[in-house]
Amino acid sequence: MKLQPESKKELKRITGGTALCTAAMWVLFAAFHVVNWVPFDSTVVLGGIIGAAVAVGNFAGICLMVQKVVDEKHEDRRKMMLKVSYNVRMLVQAVWVVIAIASPWFQPFASVLPLFFPRITIYYLQITGKYQPAKPRPQPEVSVDDPDGEAQPADDPGVKGGET
To answer: Among 37, 6, 5, 18, which Cα is nearest to 113's?
Structure first.
Protein backbone atom coordinates (compact mmCIF):
# COMPACT_ATOMS: atom_id res chain seq x y z
CA MET A 1 0.00 0.00 0.00
CA LYS A 2 1.31 3.43 -0.95
CA LEU A 3 1.06 6.35 1.38
CA GLN A 4 -1.18 9.20 0.32
CA PRO A 5 0.53 12.56 -0.31
CA GLU A 6 -0.71 14.08 2.96
CA SER A 7 0.55 11.07 4.93
CA LYS A 8 3.92 11.26 3.15
CA LYS A 9 4.18 14.95 4.04
CA GLU A 10 3.46 14.29 7.72
CA LEU A 11 5.81 11.29 7.81
CA LYS A 12 8.62 13.42 6.35
CA ARG A 13 7.98 16.12 8.96
CA ILE A 14 8.01 13.57 11.79
CA THR A 15 11.15 11.92 10.40
CA GLY A 16 12.92 15.27 10.13
CA GLY A 17 11.86 16.34 13.61
CA THR A 18 12.91 13.01 15.10
CA ALA A 19 16.29 13.20 13.35
CA LEU A 20 16.81 16.74 14.60
CA CYS A 21 15.90 15.76 18.17
CA THR A 22 18.20 12.73 17.98
CA ALA A 23 21.09 14.90 16.81
CA ALA A 24 20.38 17.36 19.64
CA MET A 25 20.40 14.45 22.09
CA TRP A 26 23.81 13.38 20.80
CA VAL A 27 25.12 16.93 21.22
CA LEU A 28 23.88 16.96 24.82
CA PHE A 29 25.48 13.57 25.48
CA ALA A 30 28.75 14.87 23.99
CA ALA A 31 28.58 18.01 26.14
CA PHE A 32 27.88 15.95 29.27
CA HIS A 33 30.73 13.64 28.30
CA VAL A 34 33.14 16.57 28.29
CA VAL A 35 32.36 17.21 31.96
CA ASN A 36 32.49 13.46 32.70
CA TRP A 37 28.81 13.07 33.57
CA VAL A 38 27.95 10.40 30.97
CA PRO A 39 29.88 8.34 28.47
CA PHE A 40 29.50 9.23 24.81
CA ASP A 41 30.37 6.25 22.66
CA SER A 42 28.94 3.96 20.01
CA THR A 43 26.23 2.70 22.39
CA VAL A 44 24.71 6.19 22.48
CA VAL A 45 24.83 6.63 18.70
CA LEU A 46 23.54 3.13 17.89
CA GLY A 47 20.79 3.35 20.50
CA GLY A 48 19.71 6.73 19.16
CA ILE A 49 19.60 5.52 15.57
CA ILE A 50 17.59 2.39 16.33
CA GLY A 51 15.32 4.20 18.82
CA ALA A 52 14.56 6.87 16.23
CA ALA A 53 13.90 4.20 13.60
CA VAL A 54 11.45 2.45 15.93
CA ALA A 55 9.70 5.77 16.67
CA VAL A 56 9.39 6.74 13.00
CA GLY A 57 8.32 3.18 12.13
CA ASN A 58 5.57 3.46 14.73
CA PHE A 59 4.31 6.68 13.14
CA ALA A 60 4.49 5.13 9.67
CA GLY A 61 2.44 2.20 11.00
CA ILE A 62 -0.19 4.65 12.20
CA CYS A 63 -0.33 6.30 8.77
CA LEU A 64 -0.64 3.01 6.93
CA MET A 65 -3.29 1.63 9.25
CA VAL A 66 -5.43 4.76 9.11
CA GLN A 67 -5.40 4.63 5.31
CA LYS A 68 -6.33 0.97 5.40
CA VAL A 69 -9.11 1.42 7.96
CA VAL A 70 -10.71 4.30 6.07
CA ASP A 71 -11.42 1.96 3.16
CA GLU A 72 -12.99 -0.72 5.39
CA LYS A 73 -16.79 -0.75 5.28
CA HIS A 74 -17.59 -2.72 8.45
CA GLU A 75 -17.21 -0.78 11.69
CA ASP A 76 -16.48 -3.85 13.82
CA ARG A 77 -13.67 -4.85 11.48
CA ARG A 78 -12.28 -1.29 11.55
CA LYS A 79 -12.21 -1.30 15.34
CA MET A 80 -10.55 -4.70 15.41
CA MET A 81 -7.91 -3.63 12.86
CA LEU A 82 -7.11 -0.49 14.87
CA LYS A 83 -6.83 -2.46 18.13
CA VAL A 84 -4.52 -5.05 16.57
CA SER A 85 -2.38 -2.34 14.98
CA TYR A 86 -2.11 -0.44 18.25
CA ASN A 87 -1.21 -3.57 20.21
CA VAL A 88 1.44 -4.65 17.70
CA ARG A 89 3.01 -1.18 17.61
CA MET A 90 3.08 -0.95 21.41
CA LEU A 91 4.55 -4.47 21.61
CA VAL A 92 7.34 -3.55 19.18
CA GLN A 93 8.16 -0.46 21.25
CA ALA A 94 8.08 -2.45 24.50
CA VAL A 95 10.39 -5.09 23.03
CA TRP A 96 12.76 -2.32 21.95
CA VAL A 97 12.75 -0.81 25.46
CA VAL A 98 13.53 -4.20 27.02
CA ILE A 99 16.34 -4.85 24.51
CA ALA A 100 17.75 -1.34 24.98
CA ILE A 101 17.84 -1.72 28.75
CA ALA A 102 19.08 -5.32 28.88
CA SER A 103 21.66 -5.18 26.10
CA PRO A 104 25.21 -3.95 26.63
CA TRP A 105 25.29 -2.62 23.03
CA PHE A 106 22.87 0.26 23.73
CA GLN A 107 22.89 3.10 26.21
CA PRO A 108 19.39 2.74 27.74
CA PHE A 109 18.44 6.41 28.07
CA ALA A 110 19.74 7.32 24.60
CA SER A 111 17.86 4.34 23.15
CA VAL A 112 14.47 4.99 24.77
CA LEU A 113 14.36 8.80 24.58
CA PRO A 114 13.87 8.89 20.77
CA LEU A 115 10.51 7.16 21.22
CA PHE A 116 9.22 10.51 22.52
CA PHE A 117 10.62 12.62 19.67
CA PRO A 118 7.66 12.26 17.26
CA ARG A 119 5.34 13.59 19.99
CA ILE A 120 7.75 16.46 20.71
CA THR A 121 7.82 17.23 16.97
CA ILE A 122 4.02 17.28 16.81
CA TYR A 123 3.86 19.62 19.81
CA TYR A 124 6.40 21.93 18.19
CA LEU A 125 4.42 22.00 14.94
CA GLN A 126 1.19 22.76 16.82
CA ILE A 127 2.74 25.51 18.94
CA THR A 128 4.33 27.24 15.96
CA GLY A 129 1.14 26.97 13.89
CA LYS A 130 2.78 24.81 11.23
CA TYR A 131 0.34 22.00 11.92
CA GLN A 132 -3.34 22.70 11.62
CA PRO A 133 -5.77 19.84 12.16
CA ALA A 134 -8.31 19.33 9.41
CA LYS A 135 -11.18 21.75 9.81
CA PRO A 136 -14.68 20.30 9.92
CA ARG A 137 -16.77 20.84 6.84
CA PRO A 138 -19.29 23.67 7.13
CA GLN A 139 -22.77 22.37 7.87
CA PRO A 140 -25.73 23.72 5.94
CA GLU A 141 -27.63 26.48 7.71
CA VAL A 142 -30.85 25.32 9.29
CA SER A 143 -33.90 27.54 8.92
CA VAL A 144 -37.64 27.34 9.44
CA ASP A 145 -39.52 26.37 6.28
CA ASP A 146 -43.08 27.42 5.63
CA PRO A 147 -45.50 25.08 3.87
CA ASP A 148 -44.85 26.84 0.54
CA GLY A 149 -41.20 25.75 0.73
CA GLU A 150 -39.73 29.21 1.32
CA ALA A 151 -37.30 29.67 4.17
CA GLN A 152 -38.09 32.32 6.76
CA PRO A 153 -35.69 33.50 9.45
CA ALA A 154 -36.80 32.68 12.98
CA ASP A 155 -37.10 36.36 13.98
CA ASP A 156 -39.48 37.12 11.06
CA PRO A 157 -42.76 38.57 12.37
CA GLY A 158 -44.66 36.31 9.95
CA VAL A 159 -43.41 33.24 11.79
CA LYS A 160 -45.70 32.29 14.62
CA GLY A 161 -44.94 29.77 17.21
CA GLY A 162 -45.92 28.70 20.64
CA GLU A 163 -49.65 29.20 20.21
CA THR A 164 -52.01 26.40 20.96
So the answer is: 18
Segment 50-63, tens digit of pLDDT: 999 999 999 999 99
* Dist CA 121 CA 138 (whole Å): 30
User: Please, where are the H alpha helices in 5-141?
Assistant: 5-34, 42-71, 75-102, 108-112, 117-127
Name every residue whose Cβ is closer than 8 Å to that of residue 117 and which is 6 or more positions away in sequence: 17, 18, 21, 22, 52, 55
- End-to-end CA, the chain: 62
Distance of CA 66 to the CA centre of its chain: 11
Quick check: pTM over 0.70?
yes
Would you call 141 helix, strand, or coil by DSSP?
coil
Whether the Cβ atoms of residue 98 and residue 5 lie closer than 8 Å to each other: no
For residue 145, the cross-strand partners are 151
